[in-house]
Amino acid sequence: MNYVEDLRKLVGHMPLILLGSAVIIIDKNKNILLQKRKTTHYGVWGLPGGLMELGESTEDTARREVFEETGLTVGKLNLIDIFSGPEYFLKLDNGDEFYSVTTAYYTEEVSGNINMDETEGLELKFINIDKLPENMVRSHRKFIEVFREKFKR
């Protein structure tokens, strides 16, 4: 079990505030790693990331999620921003409701070989930041837009 599953047993579908992290991973060609998602937002492209477990920092969450979803280990994480508010409300197909508070990072320090977790993703691909797919998680597109504006990328 994980924290959110345990919490859902107690509160059912009522709205929660859930914390998470997402990471823009930049390769040597200045492309970013996207994941075609299998769970939430099936078939839609997004960034590696996910929800915080008890006792984790946002950096711990980012590192764990990247490793679980991609097999990659990230080095220095650089803060982009923290995203929250009514526009980050989600209602899942199963009826679960939550407001996400997401700490977004970027890194160019990455090691290891891509090894996708097939329970969470359909595909992993480095994509030119100027040629993002149309079918992207809306909030993740926002993280990328803020990254580009703040860091002139």
Report on this structure:
Its cofactor is Mg(2+). Keywords: Hydrolase, Membrane, Transmembrane, Transmembrane helix. This is ADP-ribose pyrophosphatase YjhB, NUDIX family. The structure is a single chain. This protein has helices spanning 3-11, 58-70, 138-151; strands at residues 16-25, 31-37, 45-46, 49-51, 73-74, 78-83, 89-91, 97-107, 110-111, 121-128. By secondary structure, the chain is an alpha+beta fold. It has a single domain, classed as Nucleoside Triphosphate Pyrophosphohydrolase. The strands form 3 sheets. Strands 1, 4, 6, 7 and 8 form a 5-stranded mixed sheet that branches. A 3-stranded antiparallel sheet has the order 3-2-10, with no helix packed on it. It has a two-stranded antiparallel ribbon with strand order 5-9. The radius of gyration is 15 Å and the shape is globular. The protein starts with a helix and ends with a helix. The model has no long low-confidence stretch (mean pLDDT 94).
Query: Can you tell me the CATH architecture?
Result: Alpha-Beta Complex
How many DSSP E strands?
10
Proportion of strand residues:
35-45%
Helix content: 10-25%
CATH topology: Nucleoside Triphosphate Pyrophosphohydrolase
- Cα distance, first to last residue? 39 Å
Count of DSSP helices? 3
Could you give me the name of the CATH homologous superfamily?
Nucleoside Triphosphate Pyrophosphohydrolase
Calculate Rg over CA atoms.
15 Å
Question: Which ranges are low-confidence, i.e. pLDDT below 50, for 5 or more consecutive residues?
Answer: none
The CATH top-level class label: Alpha Beta
Molecular shape: globular
